[in-house]
Amino acid sequence: MMRGLPALWAEIRVNGMQSQQSRVLVQLRDLILKGAFAPGERLAEIPIAERLDASRTPVRLAFATLEQEGLVQSSPSGGYVMRAFTRKEIDDAIAVRGVLEGMAARLVAENGLTRQMQEDMNDCLRLGDEALAAPELTIDAYADYVEMNNRFHDLLLKFADNAALTRAIELNNRLPFAAASATLPMHSSTGDGRQWLLITHNQHRSILHAIERREGTRAQALAMEHVEVARMNLRHAYETADESRGLMPALRLLSRP
Amino acid sequence: MMRGLPALWAEIRVNGMQSQQSRVLVQLRDLILKGAFAPGERLAEIPIAERLDASRTPVRLAFATLEQEGLVQSSPSGGYVMRAFTRKEIDDAIAVRGVLEGMAARLVAENGLTRQMQEDMNDCLRLGDEALAAPELTIDAYADYVEMNNRFHDLLLKFADNAALTRAIELNNRLPFAAASATLPMHSSTGDGRQWLLITHNQHRSILHAIERREGTRAQALAMEHVEVARMNLRHAYETADESRGLMPALRLLSRP
DNA sequence: CTATTTATGAATGAATGCAGTGTCAAGCGA
DNA sequence: TCGCTTGACACTGCATTCATTCATAAATAG
Question: Which terminus of chain B is more exposed, N or C, with fewer CB under 10 A?
Fold first, then answer.
């Protein structure tokens, strides 16, 4: 890039962008998860650097991180290649998430909820109630539910108060379709999307109920079972892959079974 | 470094060293885990680059990876700082390892062992028998046991056949004292080291027994309990921190309780 | 016409130069 | 003597340059 820009960066930095490194990392990860690259495609530094308006250095830094996250893999002949994800990989990652979130739920149950925690979780559930109140599921209500869902899982993790657990789940969630809300949109096109959300919402309620009663094993089992919905959604996505492609471009990252 | 060296690199590369990037990453991680830097210490690029005989670029790359691994943290004012690890963090990571290895054991039990797998695991246990056969524990026997221990856990993970699980455990094991064999040496100075190894070895045997009988829940419970020895060793290390410092320099990475 | 070899070019890995900023210390003022 | 200010040094972040390697394509030989 041009040499005169540093003065501009200060301005950019104030506007919320920290550095080229993090900006490139976030934007590149976003591109990948939006399916901008085909599996197996060579990720050349120069075009990407130009596309993100940075030099090759921060792009290389981002690649190092993305490789750790498992989104790209380094080619033996140098450079990086877009990864493909098999169905088994995603399924396995969902299973791992089940185990880890089960652990989180158990820990919270065992440690007990403070008054504040209880209020936060209940607020969260209330938002879900509101999102699902109407008999017809609008797009906005859908977005609200997804946000609530993320918040519920984040709160559980936060209250579990285990940094290693948080790290493990965050790594796991980097894989496409492994995160809690990643598979939710798959049913939004079909009419029965609301049905599924009602089911998962009820599961949330049961988990909180178990936690409140300090039933650790029950909370754990419920949280593990909770991810089965994600697995079903994934299967649905595979079966209707061709129609869903337009809605979820990241589906192209899944290798054909 | 000097420009004329590339010709030499080719030679080095043939000798097993892949690239500056990986070499610097491995060596720097090694330095960190050997306690070469004090917690909170600023990790300046230039001295480290000179120390590892590379330029600043691969060092920066390595920092990016090590930050992902949680060994260093980026300072808000730029650059990287050596992390300190609290006892709770290590304890939590050991708990996470217990849950993940419990999952691995359960998966292997549920999927069943092939003849080959069974032989591999039994070979592994036999090596442990041999290492512990003598009434007195020599240093060599100790090393053999540690190697066997690593192999046992690796085999379990391999047979579980779940890439996400492997990734999660590997990330977890990057933390000092969180990995399976990381806390084993702590008792080696004391006389009762062999006692503990006998206990963990027996646990291995029980886990395999449960797996062979496809008792998934039992295998999982045993694997979870198995990490308690690590937690005890960690406590022992904290209590005898001052004497053990010479044996395990990485102990200085633990922040004072 | 096909296969092998060579040559050219593009892209990576590594090093270095440059600008900006943070930090530390010394000096000055109160 | 203590605190504040200012200046200098050092270090980071980024861009760019350089050398090597890999891949692709073309040309020649069989």
Answer: C
